[in-house]
Structure formats: structure tokens, C-alpha cells
Amino acid sequence: MLNPIRDPRPEQIPGRVNEFLQALPGPSAIYLTGEDTSRTRVLVTLSHGNEPSGLEAVHHWLQDGRKPTVNVVIILGAVEAALAEPLFFHRQLPGCRDLNRCFNPPYKDRQGQLAQSMLRTIRELEPEAVVDLHNTSGSSDAFSISIGDCPDRRALAARWVDRLIITDLRLGSLMEQDLGCPVITVEAGGSLDEAADVVAHEGIARFFLEDELLRPPEKLTLLRHPLRLELAAHSRIDYADRPLHDRDIVVRHDIERFNFAPVDHGDMLGWLDSQGLEHLQIGSDYQPHDVDEFFRVEQGQLYPRQHMRLFMATTRPDIAASDCLFYFVCDEGSEEVAGA
Ligand SMILES: [Zn+2]
Question: Do the Cβ atoms of 162 and 152 come closer than 8 Å?
Fold first, then answer.
């Protein structure tokens, strides 16, 4: 299912990223021969069609025609979702599953088969590291995520960003799979954030060029055990600066400004109808939680109960409904700095 492309020459790469996307033969694996052919690193990006920063950085790299230090394989999964009009808008093709929720068996539908093909390709390569590069749905600083914690994953994360979120949330994503080497997800920031393109561009250069990839980081902020605030089934959500009568929950339209900024019990997050917190639920990696452990309603308005940090907050109602409103980490003891 992955179309192999081997060592494309710069003159074969179309000038614009849209043309490059349109010229791809579908989901693709681009093989680049490195100086040291005994080692391989894998970059997965465009697993979501609305997250172009990784593809743009790959496009630049291929146009430059530089030789990586080791063999590199770039896997582009959601090419069809990115191509669906309007370009780079759809996370997944309408009516299809989210590719980055399809890496656990059974692999019955097309997305599952593509995920299985990606896994098979990566495992056959026996890479020394795998990075899955994304954009956040909303505007955000960059960060990385790993399942569990180990020195190699910390080191790999620090090659890209200065923040690592450690989770055991199991959603069927690529980073949960045993690939025989360290694997992390990097969220470069929002697709409209210029800083996200810089994170992707510079991260790719380090990942492709540095000989010693997994040396211990000098500084890395760790955040442990994020929870997810999810919409209950059948509840209707939208984003505005006031309550809307035909919605069960309305989240403030500027919620993205809280991404990684500290929020406290006085910060109003949105409006709920008379059923209140019943429209919400908590997704957790280690124990079940009730929404009212962390959030409260006062006169129809939603507030946190305690100091916390949000991330991955979006203002896309479709993504909030199909994925989550945001992730959050309660601050006490959750944040620590590793390294020198
Ligand atoms: Zn993504």
C-alpha cells in the first residue's frame, strides 16, 4: 500500500509543496541513502491530512538534495486526505477512520491496512529511531509525546523540542507500537503557526544529519500523565464568545491561547446547558476519573477546579467531537526538568 520512491533528485521535485503533494503516487515511503548505510532512521509525517508542516520541511529537504548522515525513510500516510478539497483541511478522509488511531489490529478497513503496511515497512527497516511528526489542531507551542519514559526517548525528544509529555494513553497510535527502537510523536505547533514550520525544518535537519542522535539532553521539561477532556456521545459542541441556544456546550473561541499557559480556577473555559458536566467525560491512561474532579460549573459557565496546563486545545468542533476538546495536566508534581 505504500508506494516506494527511491533517492529522488532535486530536479524531480516540483517547486511548490501543493504540486509535490499532487505528484505523489498515493501513500508513500521515500528512501534516502545516507553516508552510513548501516543505519536507518524513519520519519513519519502527514498521518493527518490537515498537518502540512512536516511535508513542507520534507519538500525543502528533497529540493536541497542533501545527503543524510544515515539512511532515512520518510513515510507519508494520509496523502489522500491532504489532497481532498480544500487541500490540507481534512484530518482524515470524510467517512474514514483517523489513520493514527488504526495501528492496533484488526486491520480490516483501508486505513487499518495502510497502518499495517506502515508498521511492516518500519519493522523490516530495523531503524535506530522513529519520529512521527504532526501539527496540533490549534495554535500551540511545540512539544513531544512518548509512551512511557526512558533515556533514549528523552534524548530523541530533545533533538526536536524542549518539552516531553509522558503518557500511557492507548488510542491505537503509531508511537504505542513496539518498533524495536525509541519512537516519539512530535507536535510542531499549529499548521498556521510559522514557528511550527521552523520546528519541523530544524528538527528534520538534526534528525537526518546528527551522527550521535541519542546523547542525553541538556534540558527537557517533562509532563506526566495527561488526561483528555472529551465530549460525551451525542452532545453538540461549538466555539463562540457567548452561549448558543442550539449547542450543549460552547467553548470560548480563544481557547487556544491557553495552550501550555497556566490556567486556574478563575479562568472561564466555556458555557454548558442545564445538563452541565454530563456533556463531558475524562479520558485517562491510568485510572477512571469523573469530570467534576477537575472541572466545575458556576452559573452555566465551565471552570477548572485547580491549577492545570492545557494542550492540544482546538477550535475545530469536528476535531473536538471526534478526538477531544483538549488534554490537560494538573500541575502539582507533574512538571520536572531533566538533564543538566
Ligand atoms: Zn496529527
Answer: no
Q: Distance, CA 5 to ligand 1 centroid (Å)?
A: 23
Q: 120 is written with which cell numbers?
A: 511492516
* Alpha carbon of 266 to ligand 1 centroid (Å): 31
Residues 93 and 63 in one domain: yes
Which one of 203, 224, 245 terminates a domain?
224
Distance 183 CA to ligand 1 centre (A): 15
300-325 pLDDT, tens digit per residue, is 999 999 999 999 999 999 999 988 99
Beta carbons of 89 and 50 less than 8 angstroms apart = yes
Number of domains in the chain: 2
pLDDT in tens, 219-235: 899 998 899 999 999 99
For the whole model, what pTM was predicted?
Answer: 0.90
CA atoms within 13 A on the CB side of 243: 13
Q: Are residues 265 and 218 in the same domain?
A: no
Domain encompassing residue 292: 227-338
Ligand 1 centre and the CA of 37: distance in Å? 30
